[in-house]
Protein 1
Amino acid sequence: MMAAHRSSRFSLASAVFELLDPIPFGFFVATLIFDIIYANNANVLWVKAASWLVSIGLIFAIIPQLINLYAVWFNKRRGRMAGEAASFWLNVIGIVAAIINAFVHSRDAYAAMPDGLWLSIVTVVALGIGRIILSGRNVTYKEFSNERA
Amino acid sequence: MNEHKQNWRLKIGAAASLALLLTACGEKAKIDLSQQLGNNPELPKAQNFLVPPMQVPDGVGWKGAAKPQVVSGLQIEKIASGLLHPRQMLVLPNQDILVVEGNGPGEEAVTSPKQLIAGMVKGRSGKGGKGGNRVTLLRKKAGSTGEWEQHVYIEHLHSPFGIQLVGDTLYIANTGNIMKYRYTPGETKMSDPGTELGDLPSTVNHHWTKALLASPDGKKLYVGIGSNSNITENGLDVEYRRAAVLEVDTATGASRVFASGIRNPTGLQWEPQSGKLWAIANERDEIGADLVPDYMTSVQEKGFYGWPYSYYGQHVDERVKPQRPDMVAKAIKPDYALGSHVAALGLWFYTGTGLPQQYRSGAFVAEHGSWDRTPLSGYQVVYVPFANGMPAGPAQPIVTGFYSADEKSLYGAPVGMAQDAAGALLIADDVGNVIWRVTSAGQK
């Protein structure tokens, strides 16, 4: 009984998700900032750093995106909340753009621009809107928990 | 609802097409190699890729008695094997052969994810093999055939490449300096510990080889120094005195830039008829399987040959920022294109009489082969006929068969060349770790 009760409030998957999901977004925002700087000053330090950021961001994205995929489409035990599907597809767009961006960033010197900058913008905007859509869910969840406590 | 569904299909379609784009690796070469030989190569439009054209055969070496093929009228024999990345040779007056064994110092920092991947790809091809950092002396066994005696002649060098003998002074170009040794004929081990003549540019060492050529009077050394990047991706500040031919004064070690804008001049030679300095150069990668042709060219004093701002004269490379129209305007068009990504590393103007008549007035070029083209190009030694000090006709393959018919296995790759007193052409093979000797068919 306890176990059943706990599982409704705490799941390993959502803990891992909440822990890892913000990391790629931060990396991609940093990629965008570095791309903007490189596009303006053409100092290769920035584009090399950006290529690490986008690659590492993608590695951190693997596990939370798989959890997200399962939670949105395959978890029969819970209903799909409003906005989750739209958020999922925005994530797909953002991640696909980031994967392409990692390859674009492997080009030498200024060949990464302007494509890399545009792809960084797509990734950040898509993931950003996806998070904004879900922010309503988080607020209600937190308020709900606070009321319970 | 319907609208929603369509929206979804659109999104799935978009995702699928993006995925397709991603898997679309670099294209195959479209231009026939023969269109990129000579003084007016066909140059397609530059492209950018997600993944550049790439094909890297596995380095497997030569099994048993396997050897490269030569055109009819010639024969080839193996005179040394088991060497440690042999790259350049020098035939001594007593006909011993010095073989310089070296590879990159491996000191280039990994500063981008791409470098991690590129290192693994290179390792597979056998081109990443550890260099011996030494010079081996080969001596023909009196009255016997087969492989020559090997003696370790100089050890503990630092990625050596160029080697020249002027009188009794032996010069060896490490990646970071020129060393000077007193040469004693007949020795099988160098007795002089050597002294440094002067330093050479050695930051990063993306292109690490330092080709060496002495002036006929022995007063100057010309040093070929490659760029520190493909196309300035390591920044312009590490390109100081790079992609250049330096002239070093042998009396003092002082040096100056003799010519610049040559991306990777790995072979320097005097053209025998005109007496002019010629260089062989590797051009830039990653703007197409058919760009940019490697070349050989006469080198003018204070000449600028384009790198990084432009290629083949005034073809601007958009990857370089800031752009320099003033430098592009100055760029000299090279004399002779050898084909894209053949990776021409070795140049030898043949002056002997041992080979058949048709090879006696021109240059041999060793093409090491590159990762950045599919199908493969290079991996052969070609002959370029010369007349009146200039190339006169298309390059003809002379030594081939360095890779398997399916382009999957790499047996060897030619680098430096030399010629001995009998007029034989010597070829260093740094994937097979072999020295080959090419003679007229039937000659001993």
Note: Chain B has three helices and 31 strands.
Protein 2
Amino acid sequence: MTLAHPRPYLQPRDTHPPLDFAGYKSTGLRAPTQRPIVVPQRLTEVTGPLLVGEIGPNDHDLTRQHEGEPLGQRITVSGRVLDSDGRPVPDTLVEVWQANAAGRYAHKRDNWPAPLDPNFSGGGRVVTNSLGEYSFTTIKPGAYPWGNHHNAWRPAHIHFSLFGRAFTQRLVTQMYFPEDPLFAFDPIFRSAPEGARERMISTFDMDTTQPEWALSYRWDIVLRGREQTPFEEPHE
Amino acid sequence: MSEQLPLTPSQTVGPYLRLGLDWPKGADVVPPGTPGEIVISGIVYDGAGVPITDGLIETWQADPDGRFAHPDDPRGAVEPSVPGFLGFGRSCTDETGRWSVRTVLPGALPALDTEAQEAPHLDVSVFARGLLDRVVTRIYLAGQPGNDADPLLAAVPAERRDTLVAEKVGEAEYRFDIHLQGDRETVFLQV
Ligand SMILES: [Fe+3]
């Protein structure tokens, strides 16, 4: 039996952060020290989970998951999931999690002195439509301090998890907000190569801002495609 | 070739990943009570040998017939032969650094690019605070006859091959620890 080999999803250079990034201390004991072994993409890699799990009625609206409304600036975050060939990725799961308006996560290990919001859990999920579009309603997360170095603060961000349609397209990233003064000081944001960082920053969009309801931020996410010039990007 | 869009960079999941990524039945690749079910579990360690309690393991595998319910499989997408089989498993590490998935043995696969067959395996993504991108590895299962002829295992230096093979520790239980660094650093793959 001969089978056509599916075309691989290719990884371009100058995109992802190096695993060992000295400015981010936790990489020290966690980034593997040996180079990864480059292996061909076979059946397990060019396929991937197409499942979406269970989606609840308010999973796309983080402001409606409790009795009352959370405090903070109500926003919508929407955009498209694409691959680098420019093709929309339809019917794919997008998962998000974030801090509340005061910069505190509803997580037992987050205990810095900012208030919890009983009306905000901070987790959401949606599935893209046939055009690869997604949309969440939420509140703008606050910045928060962390222990990486003296006076370390994370710029406001929303964590995003994406599957695409192949194991090789899996991506976890963070979306940032325009013109955050903390960009200059944040090693996690700055771990991405110069020229690539800006792709993690959403744009404010007046056209889709809803009068007397919610400010709109737009953010497109681009996953690996198949037609990319085949550069390898070994992790150092 | 059409114009290429630049990719979105990866970022760490951070310490609070459970808020978005913890699924109630995420660790069940098959429903409990499935005939032939096995449990694969292990601990994720950092370079100091300390268990990582804020990590996430995801697994992806073929069904017992070596098939995928996926249109990009050139043999065609087929419904799994095991009822409720998802192929995908997800387990946050607990307070002891332990993860665990309930599944069934995957089938062997044609390698496509060589005559060889790939031995039964699961693809694995490891996410954690401190990992700016996921790292990828594979789980093979001790005692599977095809392991000796597997082309990926053959490409791994012999002295490190064991890090990709889950140990059989019970009738239907396998153990697969992951070491991000150190003497027993797991072999990671660039796919
Ligand atoms: Fe965060």
Note: Residues 57 and 182 of chain B are 19 Å apart (CA to CA).
